[in-house]
Amino acid sequence: MEMEMKDELGLTVDRLAAAASLLEQAVERLAQRQSAFAEDAEASIGRIVATVEAHREVELEEKLAAAELKIAELQARGVRGLPAAGRKTLPSAMTSLLAKQGVTVDSLEAGSLDAALLSLSVEQRIAVKSQLIRAGLLG
Cys staple from 138: which of 2, 8, 122, 132, with CB 3.0 to 4.6 Å? Predict the structure, then answer.
């Protein structure tokens, strides 16, 4: 009987060793699959990033071309000396402000305008001159 138990115990140990061996092989296969999956995922992500970057690059190139076209158009308009579209008269508040300083719209000269605007702050002088330029009364 003791011998039978030893034989059974030996068989059980052999079966456990075989099962452990199979488990080790299964773990190795799972690790290989995991590694292959990670490599595939990394390659897929790389392709996606490259696609997005290429799309963004094309988009930026299109915007750059449009901006360059607009710049060329604006430069051509400036070279031809076309007046800027917009207001051709001064607001009534601006006309009355200039009149209080002794400057009439008909007699605008750079020196007289600067002298008349001395009492104003720098921001106000800039605003007055920019409106005069927009109206085409000051070059």
Answer: 132
